[in-house]
Amino acid sequence: MSDDATPGADAAADRDDDLTHTDAAGDVQMVNVGDKPDSARRAVARGTIHLTESTVEAVRGNELKKGDVLATARVGAVQAVKHTWETIPMCHQIPITNVDTEFAVHDDRIDLEVAVETTGTTGCEMEALEGVTTGLNVVWDMVKAAEKDATGGYPDTRITDVEVVSKEKTVLQ
Asked: What is d(CA 131, CA 62) in angstroms, rounded to the nearest whole number?
């Protein structure tokens, strides 16, 4: 089989035609959104951190030495949303008009959903994803002493299922 006959090459080439952050030569560029109309936009992302049941109980009871895990993670999530443009190279700096965070605490995990709203010419899904991943990373940081095993590892701790669950856009007139 030649290099040109790689399975899925046609599908990959089609996707490459749709990439918005590269020019014809393949160089990375920021997308010009200056000619787009302002829109009210909302994006929601979610993710999960899996923990031991004893750690989740300690979070519920606010019994961890570092303090209130969920309150700290909420601040971290909001802060990350506001600073996404500084950490994702091709993201525009956008005016954040609202951030909602919602935690669901289960026996063996904590789910986080972050909703971001803006008015402008580009979406806010990257901001929602940054909020979720940073919020869950803050949870991990706050509970790591409780989660470590005898060798210093984290066999029961993992972040999973990070995804954008919805995007809304309404062109303003």
From this structure: 22
Q: Which three-class secondary structure state does DSSP give residue 115? A: strand
**Cα separations (Å) of 55 from 63, 104, 108, 142?**
9, 15, 8, 10
Cα–chain-centroid distance for residue 62?
A: 25
Task: Give yes or no for a contact between 123 and 167, defined as CB atoms under 8 angstroms apart.
Answer: yes
φ, ψ of residue 67 in degrees (nearest 5): 120, -160
Tokens 């991943």 found at: 133
Mean pLDDT of the chain: 88
Comparing 122 with 45, the larger pLDDT belongs to 45
Which among 84, 86, 87, 89 has a CA at the least distance from the CA of 118? Answer: 84
Just list the catalytic residues: 141
Residue whose C-alpha is closest to residue 13's, from 1, 27, 29, 26: 26
pTM for this predicted structure: 0.84
